[in-house]
Structure formats: C-alpha cells, structure tokens
C-alpha cells in the first residue's frame, strides 16, 4: 500500500504533475533540435535544481528524458536530420514517407509506438527490475565486445544492395570513432600531431553533417522542384494498424529493455538492433525498407523508448547508470543525500515507486504533446526548397556549434556533409558510418578490457567465450549472422541477404 501511494505522488500532486508535463514538452522540442541533447539539458538542470527538493527535481528531469528520446524523431522524419542518436534508424524510413507526402502519418505512428514502447519499459522496470538487473550484471567485457560486433553486423541491414559498400562505410565510422587520445594509454591515434584532434571528432558533428548537410546538398539538384503537399487528414493510426504491428512492437520493446539495461549502451543501439530485427522478421513489407516501410518506424521507436525504462533498472537496483542521462540522475540523487543501489530499494522503496509514477505520467504527456501541433510542424517540409535548404544549413550549423561551442565542430560538420554528399552520389549508405562511430568506443574499450582480464592471452579469451553460456550464445549469434549473409546459406534456406 505504501508503494502504491508513492506511485501516486507525481499523479496527484499538481506541482509535480506540472513539472513532469513541462519537462516532457521541453524534452520533445529539445530532442527535435539537432545538437541539443537530452544529456546536455539534464546536466544543466542539476545546477538549477540542486536546492530543490528531490521529488520536483526528478520530476522535471524524468519528463525531459522521456520527451527528448521521442523528440528526435520529428526532424528525422521531416528533414532527415536525427535530433538525437536514437532517431537515426527512424530517419531511414521516416524521411522517405515525408517525401511521399505522409509526414503526418509517420509522426503519428512514431508517437503511438513510442508511447507503447515506453509503457513496456516502465512495466518491466516495475515488475522485473531485480531479475533484469541480475541478467545485465552477468555481462563481462567480452560480452560487451561481442554485443558491439553484433551491432556492427547491422551494416547488412543498413547498407542497401551492396554489403561490401556497407562494410566499407561501417569501417570508416569505426576509424572516425577512434580518432583522439587512446583512453587507456593516452597515446595519440590518427591525430597527425594536431591538438584539435586529441579530443576526438564530435559524434554530433558527424551525424548532423552526414544526414543534414548532405541532404541539403542533394536537394540543390532540384531546387526549383515544387514542395510535396503533406497528407495530414489522419494522424492517429487506426486500431487495425496498431494491432497489425503489435507483435513487432512487443519484440522491439523487449530488445529495447534489455539493451537499455546494459550499462553504456542506450536507445541508439537498441533502435538500430530493433530495426535490424524488423528487417529480418518482416517477410513481405508493403514498401521496401529504406523506402518508407512502416515497420522501419515501429521497431526503432518502440525500442528506444522502452530503453528508457530499461536504463533505470541498473540505476535503481545496482547504482549503475544504464546510459548518460541516468548517470547524471545518480549524481542528482547523491546531491540530495540518496545513494542509488540495493540499499535504496530497501530503505527508500517510495523513491523507486515515485520514479515509476513519474515515468508513467511523462509517457502519457509524451503521447498528448506528440499528437498535437503536427499540422503546424509538417509545414516545414511544405516550404519552398529555396527556404528549406537554408533552414537545414542553419539548423545544422547551430546544432554542431551548440555541443561544445566550437567552430571546429562546425567545420567538421560541413566537411562530413560534403563527404556524405559524395557517398550518396556513388551509392553508399550513411547509416553504417554513424553506426560505426557509435559502436567504436564500445568495441575498442571492451576488447582491451577483455584481453587484459584474460592476461592478454587470446586462447584464454576464446576459452572464456566457449565456457560462458552467455558469451557462447552471443558468439553463435555472430557466426549465424555472418553465415546468413553468404550466397550458400541464402540458396539453402531461401532467405534474403
């Protein structure tokens, strides 16, 4: 009964409910602006809220977190510029829908599916947090390494018709991600003695340049082409549509919760893995993936919002952050005299249930705010190209500069935009490049940790993989995915590459 009363606190208290609503609304539009990340917003909030009581501070942060993860899909669909890394997969099919005049339907599907995925994550957090945390705690460095390898194999789904081009693009992304000081030895890597490269290349600059600037340059080919009139007569998807994609939503939500509960991963990896899963299990999509398949919206959007609930699981039960935002929230709890982890669950169970209640209301507000203002928002893609292209350039420059307040990031962004433009011209997909950048640190760090933990012996590492059930399952999955891409496998089992 005490737990249930704590769950109702953010629902019945008007001040806390208002803070959750304000945070969610702000998060949606912060997430929609390239370069203004949710992590940045929550970290700034700590300085403003450290004198507040813990409940109001957490209410505002949770609202921004939930709204921001969803908000990145808006510009991903309308401008092909993901507002957040978690929306990269959404852009692959959302933007083609907008180019067909179906931006309203695309936003409606992403909103409803994000709401569904968010609730699955919250339910798992409330019901099975200790169980999922115990599973996440079993992951060793070698398992994270294999998970990164699995993610890199997603180039098969993101590389269009040519796997070779996809592998090249993925390798390019890994190379970009390793520029800077080695995190273990502090040695220079690919810096060419340039001080500006020692801090690495901003992922946000790469993402905005590759997706935003390259798209603006491509549109210069048809600058006089009339804007596409968007069909927005129906925004909320019908019950039949929701029911049709319900099985895929449940599967993708499961992926999101599990990936979200693994420390150091997050909604971006969950979304990409769910997209790959959707591409594998969808036999006959109405529209091919990459050309506006609705399944390509359903899977990543349910997964990245389910990952929000998943990220809170290790934070609340073990004191280990699931992602960058929950790491900041752990800091906020410390500031307020609380120590996240097993003892918090025992001594202050009301805090756990308060967070569950705040997440529930943030998810509801996300649905409400996500389905309003769409008719005004989609007018962006109905602008004349002579106005839209400069707007894309402006948003891209502001987004790249906002991360570190550095003009160097703007130059990188413009350079990667030109590179992305030429890659598009020659048939290379940009998704694998971004995926490579995302996973490079996860692969690099955990490869070194894994080999060090096995006394720098490759045979010992292989023995550890074979003798650990979890590692063995991941290794077998890697082998099967590679085998499934071979012509022999496709002829034997009649599958697509």
Structure commentary:
- With 497 residues, this protein is mainly alpha-helical.
- It has one domain.
- It is 73% helix and 1% strand.
- The chain has helices spanning 2-12, 14-32, 38-49, 54-79, 88-99, 103-137, 141-152, 155-158, 163-177, 203-219, 239-244, 246-260, 267-281, 295-318, 324-335, 342-347, 349-370, 374-377, 385-404, 407-425, 431-453, 458-467, 469-484, 487-493; strands at 180-181, 188-189.
- Strands 1-2 form a two-stranded antiparallel ribbon.
- The chain is globular and about 60 Å long.
Structural class label:
mainly alpha
Give, in spatial order, the strands making up the sheet with the most strands: 1-2
**Largest sheet geometry:** 2 strands, antiparallel
What is the helix/strand order?
HHHHHHHHHEEHHHHHHHHHHHHHHH
What coarse outline follows from CA principal-axis ratios? globular
User: Which regions are unreliable across 5 or more consecutive residues at pLDDT < 50?
Assistant: none
- Structure summary, number of beta strands: 2
Q: Give the amount of beta strand, in percent.
A: under 5%
Distance between the termini: 53 Å
What is the average per-residue confidence, as pLDDT, rounded to a whole number? 80
What percentage of residues falls in helices of 4 or more residues?
A: over 70%
Number of helices: 24
Query: In the residues, how many domains can be counted?
Result: 1
Q: What is the C-alpha radius of gyration, as a whole number of Å?
A: 22 Å
């Amino acid at each position: 009964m005490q737990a249930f009363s704590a769950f109702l606190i953010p629902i019945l208290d008007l001040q806390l409910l208002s803070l959750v609503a304000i945070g969610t609304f702000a998060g949606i539009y912060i997430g929609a602006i390239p370069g203004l990340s949710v992590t940045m917003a929550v970290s700034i909030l700590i300085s403003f809220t450290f004198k507040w009581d813990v409940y109001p501070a957490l209410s505002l942060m949770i609202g921004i977190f939930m709204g921001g993860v969803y908000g990145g899909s808006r510009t991903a669909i309308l401008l092909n510029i993901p507002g957040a890394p978690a929306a990269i997969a959404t852009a692959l099919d959302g933007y083609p829908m907008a180019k067909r005049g179906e931006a309203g339907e695309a936003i409606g599907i992403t909103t409803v599916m994000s709401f569904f995925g968010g609730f699955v994550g919250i339910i798992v957090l409330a019901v099975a947090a200790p169980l999922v945390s115990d599973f996440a705690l079993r992951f060793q460095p070698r398992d994270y390494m294999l998970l990164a390898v699995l993610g890199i194999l997603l180039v098969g789904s993101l590389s269009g018709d040519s796997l070779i081009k996809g592998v090249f693009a993925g390798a390019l992304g890994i190379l970009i991600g390793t520029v800077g000081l080695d995190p273990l030895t502090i040695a220079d890597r690919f810096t060419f003695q340039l001080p500006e490269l020692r801090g690495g290349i901003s992922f946000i600059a790469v993402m905005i340049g590759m997706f935003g600037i390259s798209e603006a340059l491509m549109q210069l080919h048809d600058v006089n082409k009339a804007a596409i009139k968007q069909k927005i007569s129906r925004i909320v998807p019908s019950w039949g549509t929701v029911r049709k994609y319900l099985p895929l939503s449940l599967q993708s939500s499961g992926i999101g919760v599990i990936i979200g509960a693994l420390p150091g991963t997050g909604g971006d990896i969950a979304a990409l893995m769910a997209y790959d899963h959707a591409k594998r299990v969808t036999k006959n999509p109405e529209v091919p993936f990459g050309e506006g398949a609705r399944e390509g919206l359903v899977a990543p959007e349910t997964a990245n919002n389910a990952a929000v609930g998943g990220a809170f699981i290790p934070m609340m039960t073990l004191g280990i952050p699931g992602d960058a935002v929950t790491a900041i929230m752990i800091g906020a709890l410390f500031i307020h005299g609380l120590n996240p982890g097993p003892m918090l669950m025992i001594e202050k169970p009301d805090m756990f249930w308060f967070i569950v209640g705040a997440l529930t209301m943030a998810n509801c507000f996300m649905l409400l705010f996500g389905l309003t203002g769409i008719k005004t928002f989609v007018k962006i893609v109905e602008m004349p190209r002579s106005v839209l292209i400069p707007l894309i350039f402006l948003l891209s420059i502001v987004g790249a500069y906002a991360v570190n307040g550095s003009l160097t990031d703007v130059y990188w962004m413009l350079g990667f935009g030109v590179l992305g433009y030429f890659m598009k011209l020659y048939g290379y997909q940009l998704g694998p490049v971004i995926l490579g950048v995302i996973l490079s640190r996860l692969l690099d760090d955990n490869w070194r940790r894994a080999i060090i933990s096995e006394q720098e012996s490759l045979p010992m590492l292989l023995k550890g993989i074979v003798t650990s059930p979890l590692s063995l399952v991941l290794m077998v999955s890697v082998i099967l995915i590679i085998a499934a891409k071979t012509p022999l496998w496709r002829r034997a089992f009649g599958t697509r590459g």
